Amino acid sequence: MRVTGTGHASMRIDTAAGSILCDPWVNPAYFASWFPFPDNSLLDWESLGQVDYLYVSHLHRDHFDAKHLRDFVSKDATVLLPEFPTSEMEDEFRALGFTKFLKAPNEQVVELPGGLKIMIQALTSPTDGPIGDSSLWVEYDGVRLLNQNDARPTDLSVFAELGHVHAHLLQFSGAIWYPMVYELPQAAKTAFGKQKRDRQFDRTWRYIDDLKADHVFPIAGPPCFLDDALWQFNDIHGDEGNIFPDQSVFLSEYAKVGGTNGIVLLPGSVAEVTTEGASTTHPVPVDEFFANKVAHLEEMRERKRPIIEAEKASWRHPEVDVLGEMKRRIEPLLDESIYLAKGVGGPVRFDLVGYDGESVESIVVDFPGKEVRPYAEEKVRYRFRTERALIEHLLFIDEVDWVNSLFLSCRFSAARIGQYNEFVYAFFKCLSEERLQYAEGWYDEHERTTDAEDITLGDWVVQRRCPHLKADLTRFGIVEGDQLTCQLHGWRFDLPSGRCLTSVGHKVRAHRVDAETPAPAGEALS
């Protein structure tokens, strides 16, 4: 099995029975804030796009690059579709000219012509990707590969049970806006960033240890930030709180925990994977490339500057009545929302900075009141500040996912009172009837599901499944004193009270081993 690195989470897998192109991303994403690094735009995409199969793990725009898929990937390719709860991904592919689809039943092995086998695991929580994420398992002639990319399954047993894996490709770096955009003292940002960076690596080591593959390939990050306004987010400033460590940092950190089987794929690197080992060739020496990272970034910044400026010029739409359009788009969804609206529990404020860089219009999405209205000087727990032009553009293009656009762009600042609230972001990811109904149904189903099984962790008896996204706490749960941490997403719980310390709601059921009666579980959306 030959694996050619094509940048970020993208790769081309070649076997004698067929080729699969995965997650090709080349064009800037999220309001031209994210670019692939190392740069992959100079690869021979005319040839790389001539494949038998195409797999895109999810609809995040650093995985689903519509322009590149339209221009460079053969429309004769069969699209391998995860079993997602909505038709959005297939609809988007059809709009680009793709006509051949294989809808893979979730977690079922499918044998393709020539003996090539694939299995796709789809994750379908509203917090997974825009409306889901997925992983791809491939086997040919006894060689097995798992492309986990961004996905965070609760465990990898479904893949391990299919036989020993020889190549494990997974995310290790940040892909979020926290804590950089928060209006906090720099010391606090650094502390929170370091904590998140450490959690990212801890989660990666757990997945690697679970699968025990012969070779580990760090992929799916980090992006680079080439706009001058975002340049500080690149991990080149000696900031221990930067959440975007690169592949060379991965190798160093992996070595500290005993890892010796890591392989970096630059764009154009080729790894020949067999049951006996892997041999890799690179377009340039890996160590040399990352030693010159700053120079590579500076060269990219100058070369891509016209692209960024052209994107910025397209954002302004002064003809858009922002308040009126937000009311038209969002109020019907607020009327239909039960779980998300209750979960948010208060007004969310948007401060929109005008073209002059000074004037500000403040608009509130009032979840309890089910309306969008001008800010009335009330206290809000969540506030976002961004350019008016960005909101104009989202409304102009009828964007249904403000998370997979505005928030991932990092072109905003945020402030909040109290804990993180996942329902805020879940709602702004679901600005369509189809998405909202799915999310409401998902939360309704999980609200009704009782988790009766308990486990013992140290001196505590706790429910087996994490209240957040049902991770198995026998695998991901760590108890230190009176606190439980689920390492899958880093969520923390106070065990004596059951209270979630990371977000509102999500109370855990727990009691001491020697206690006679367990504490009540409480309501998930209290």
TrEMBL record:
SUPFAM superfamilies named among the record's database cross-references: ISP domain, Metallo-hydrolase/oxidoreductase
Keyword line: 2Fe-2S, Iron, Iron-sulfur, Metal-binding
Domain named Rieske: residues: 461-515
Positions in coiled-coil regions: none
Pfam families given in the database record: Rieske, SCP2_Rv3818
Family annotation (PANTHER family): N-ACYL-PHOSPHATIDYLETHANOLAMINE-HYDROLYZING PHOSPHOLIPASE D
Identification of the protein by name: MBL fold metallo-hydrolase
Organism encoding this protein: Micromonospora parastrephiae
